[in-house]
Amino acid sequence: MKLIKAVGLIAVLGLGSALAQDRTQTLIYGGDWSDLITMDPQVSYEFSGGLVTDNLYETLVKYEGADLSTLRPGLAESWKVDRGRDSWEITFRLRRGSKFSSGNEVTARDGVYTCERALAIKGPGSFLFTEIAQLKPGATKALDNYTVMVSIPKTASPGSFLSILTFNIGGIVDSETVQRNARGNDFGKEWLTNNSAGSGPFRLVRWDRGSQVLLEASPNARLKPKLQRVILREIKEPAVLRTALESGEIDIAEGLTPEALRALANNPRFKTLRADSLRLNYLGMSVKEGSPFANNLVRDAVRYSINQDELVSGLVQGNGTKIQTIIPKGLLGYDARTPYNFDPARARRLLAQAGLPNGLEFELLVSTGICGGGIPCADIAAKIQSDLAKGGFKANVKAIANAEVLRTYRAQNHQMVLVGWSPDFPDPDGNATPLANYAARSLAWRNVWNDATSAKLANQASLETDPAKRTALYRLLTDYVLKNGPYAILYQPAVPLGLSAKVEGYVRNAQSQVRFENISKLP
Amino acid sequence: MFSYFIRRLFFVIFVAWGVTFATFFIANVVPIDPAIAALGDNAREEQIQEFRERYGLDKPIWQQYLIYMGRLASGDLGNSLRTQRAVAEDLREFFPATLELSVAAFLVTLLLGVPAGILAALRQNKASDVTVRVLALMGGATPVFFLAVLLQYVFARQLDLLPVQGRLDGFTFPPPRVTGLVGVDALLARDWAAFVDSLLHLMLPAFVLGLFSAAILARMTRATMLEVLSQDYIRTARAKGVAGRAVIFRHALKNASLPILTLLGGLLGGLLSGAVLTETIFSWPGIGRYVTQSATSLDFPAVMGVTLLVGLVYALINLITDLLYAFLDPRIRYS
Question: Dihedral, CA atoms, A494, A505, A424, A218, nearest 10 degrees?
Fold first, then answer.
């Protein structure tokens, strides 16, 4: 790497050839991994945790590449959904010969153990099993050595459950190894925080908190990686990320600034990428009784007041895309229509129709932190404030700590709030129910939008198993929420990345999953 | 002397108690819910409630404080809300990195600050004095983040001589963790490649961190040396024909060392409390970066743990400084 080091090491230790060989076999991935708190797939609920554990553990079903709408076989070579009398019965047929890094074969017993473990540990993501899938202890059974059957109630969506299984909570653990390292009834939770016991293409070698995570190719993996080692290097500062990439210390830099991305795009030594995310940045308007936003004409006036094109191209600088409907691009049911064009005159007319000819003054709550796409939320709020002024609104921007914005929002004490939302699992229901169903006590509830039509449509769509019918239902729902909901969707942020031109095969899907086994490095 | 030492150690306990009391109540004045800060937007009400109960956040503040102090008495610093493990474990993980960087930066401070100060004092108002004063002024006035990024740009990006960030190169396999000090661990493992690499990684952050302290130290050394050099006993020593070097080091520097020692104690304490900016810019996993992340996540147990550790470090350094006074100045006797 560095001159002194290269000379010193090569001359004194004679490691030149070994190091050179190692470089093409090692990928160093820099980014802000400070949210990493555990390597346990059934406990981890952080972006970075998912990024690592997705490569240590295989799931029964998975998504491939950037496509989040088609399920593919994982450890299960096939699966089927049957309508039982009181429940959905989902049967998975496991591949024979898949092995954990320990050498143990993956069997149905491990599948059962993993589901029971997730329910027993009650990690932060366990609600995906207990509430969304309504999975109960004992509902997962091994029919034989290679067949697992899961029963979930009729009121739960099998589509949602299957997409939840692509998440790290569904990462199948080596029951024998985990139980051997368990302490009392902890299901090996303490041990798996710092160790791995999966059948994924990599195994965890070492985790130096706040510094790096070191993964090595698992000798027994079914999916053979092209690289021997992957290192996740924690670098929080975007300027340092860029310098580290340019000086060759890292191969991939995640979370660059728009300026750095532009500079790298003009350098043939690097490639740039704006990876999709499933996040939506939006304005939430409280429609509780007495609020001016209770009148949909006022909400429509807000939607016509925002110059989204200018926001996305100017402020967000391409680190996001224009969207107006509630299901993000990348998921089934995404609707690309953007019928609300910037029309301040129309907004003023709508306000007058709503009985507010002199405009409307209100408070816009915003976080002091960074919003999706790496843009300070306060900058976005300033742009929205200026746009809304053209439409006859006077928004008083109040910038406070993010946790305080959320506390106010959760207490239904806001008038308008600028926040973001990412679905908990890669299924349209991850957005549809929270945003459309008041009873879910999520975003619709926070904005006091209790609408029977949207709740019914969201529920129907979540339970529908036929993809075509489901898409049609989501089309109806997104259109309804777009025109009647308490939201003005602003943009879908992207994740800016810089890569060495030597890196090939890198794909980051909108759920932040990267399959390291597909990545290779040119000499 | 021994009874003085015991008395001072007893005093340290009061310092620690004062630190916990102040930090705990200041932390609880912040009108933000740590549960929401830790769990984020998607968390459900039940999860938030369960989190509050698990960490005792649903109890009155005075009760939380009593529980905390009770645990502290048995050496338990509690669990971090952010990393969800024992704060003591976190400190064991992150403090060695800070210690490593602080010691290196302290060496930079000593090696640059003291000689520069002596040189400036001996050549008062000459070109070298003016140069030292200007450099000291610049060193003290240049913001750490600016200097760090500038040096990274020059030494890493343009000259490709030194690494930009981290404690070891990604291509170097880290030595087994024994002390947590990478250089020492590398030596213990006889991994010379890792040792050399760790030294290279230490250079830029240690220089950036040490330069500011060196600038202050140079000015202090110069001022004290000038004062001592004008004393009668120095003139007498010179008149007696004592060699120049002996006058400077044995007579002048030793007598000038008390204020310098006091300053050094404060500087070392400051370095050991974690340099937030330097650690962030150089991706150095020390307690400075840890406490910043903890503070922004409203992780009070972690903030309390770091504050307590830093308080103890300061108290200990002050104690050692006081004991060194007696060693350097025979007139000082503790009883």
Answer: -150
pLDDT mean over A336-356: 96
The mean pLDDT value for B185-189 works out to: 94
- B97 CB neighbours in chain A (<8 A) are 210-211
- Show the tokens assigned to B289: 């970066």
Lookup result for tokens 């945790």: A49
Radius of gyration of chain B (CA): 24
A299 contact partners, CB below 8 Å, separation of at least 6: A285, A287, A293, A485, A486, A488
Which residues in chain A have Cβ-Cβ distances shorter than 8 Å to B45? 410, 441
d(CA B242, CA B256): 18
Cβ-contact A302, A391 below 8 angstroms: yes
**Cα–Cα distance measured from residue B29 to residue B25, given in angstroms and rounded to the nearest whole number:** 6
Least confident of A233-247, A261-275, B7-21: B7-21
d(CA A264, CA B100) in angstroms, rounded, equals 34
pLDDT given for residue A13 in this prediction: 47
Q: How confident is the model at residue A9 (pLDDT cuts 50, 70, 90)?
A: very low
Name the pTM for this structure.
0.83
The CA distances from residue A116 to A358, B179, B235, in Å, are 60, 39, 85
Residues belonging to chain A: 523
ipTM beyond cut 0.85: no
Q: Which of residues 128-147 of A touch B (CB under 8 A)?
A: 131
Picking from A13, A17, A239, A212, the residue whose alpha carbon sits closest to that of residue B201 is A212
Which letter does DSSP use for residue A269 in this model?
A: T
pLDDT tens digits, one per residue of A22-58: 778 999 999 989 888 899 999 998 888 999 999 999 9
Q: Is A413 on the interface with B (CB under 8 A)?
A: no
The more confidently predicted of residues B292 and A451 is A451
The helix (run of H) or strand (run of E) holding residue A247 is none
Cβ–Cβ below 8 Å for B82 and A235: no
Percent of chain B surpassing pLDDT 70: 96
Rounded to whole angstroms, the Cα distance separating A339 from A403 reads 33
Contact A127 B47 (CB under 8 A): yes
* DSSP β-bridge partners for residue A206: A214
Residue type, A14: G
Considering only the beta carbons, identify the residue of B36, B153, B165 that sits closest to A406: B36
Measured between CB atoms, does A269 come within 8 Å of chain B? no
